[in-house]
Amino acid sequence: MENLKWVIEVLKEWLPFLITFLIAILVVGLAYRVLLKKRPPATANIVGRQLMVGLITAIFVVTLILELPIDDAPRGQLMSLLGILVTAAIALSSTTLLGNAMAGFMLRSIRNFRPGDFIVVDGHRGRVSELGLLRTEIQTERRNLTTFPNLFLVSNPVTVVRTSGTFIASTVSLGYDVPREKVETALLEAAENAGLTEPFVFVMELGDFSIVYQIAGFLEETKYLISAESKLRGNMLDSLHKAKIEIVSPNFMNQRQLKPEQIFIPKMSLTSKPKVLAADDARPEEKMFDKADLAEHEAKAEDRLKAVINEIEKLDKEEDGEADEEAYQAKFAELHKEREALEAEVAERREAKKAASAEDAADDGDGDGGDTEKP
Questions:
Q1: Does the pLDDT at position 254 exceed 80?
Q2: pTM of the model
Q3: Is the same domain home to 180 and 225?
Q4: Could you tell me the CATH number of the domain that includes residue 241?
């Protein structure tokens, strides 16, 4: 009987702690599920959600220590120990964890690139597929995922390809025996056949044995940057061969034991016409940057959704009795309809992105090392 009373007394002392512990598990689990797994349609700031989950967890840890059925002296010692552990963790990780977190805030404040943008950093080129608290992920032209710590992006130059268009260029070296005007005409024709606008030619270098020419042109659809560069080089070959300009090093020309009139140009290049890519033809970039495309579309849909919500709120504030009620209702209904469509699109994009991330995680768990690289 006395043992039963002792058990009841112990349960009474520990009951508040156990209840708080169960509530903490439920609240933290629910917060993680709602804030990180099921993101609200109009929320794109993953940094804030991660900090919110961490703050909730920290509050419950302190609450659990306060609920322990112990004397004030041991409780004070536990709080001091917790403070020392937190301080030590911050001090030890200040150069990495805290530095990357601060760099993440900096990248979001300056907003020099967004999901879907082409960036080049330290020799790595790809489209941004994810922006996190501690790291940034890009998808390369091989469809692989390269992860950069945010501190690395802050401390190194980052080149961002403008979505409004960019100039692409390619170089070729030709002998001094080829007239410059003839070369420039052929290269300008190649740029036009590649679909570039405002093309121009630069003479880059006068070498000991050859001249280096550079052809450049403006590309409006930066999404297809890789294909455009390849198409430009191919058209350069076709145009130069069509103009009977030999792309052979002078050293090779001086050493070959052949007839002077013999040239090294494929016969097909003199008669064939460059293939024109139809508008509905599949581009390799659509497979290369699938995850980056999802991130870009999600970001654009979220930005438009925020703009629609702000417009609805502004419309509510500006409503007065003298306004045209019919026009107001029509505009209000149109905005709400667009909002519902955008919310559905954002949810669809997130599900597709989540499926792609799950596929990447499954591939990494197969033991083949995955396809994620770190600089």
A1: no
A2: 0.56
A3: yes
A4: 3.30.70.100
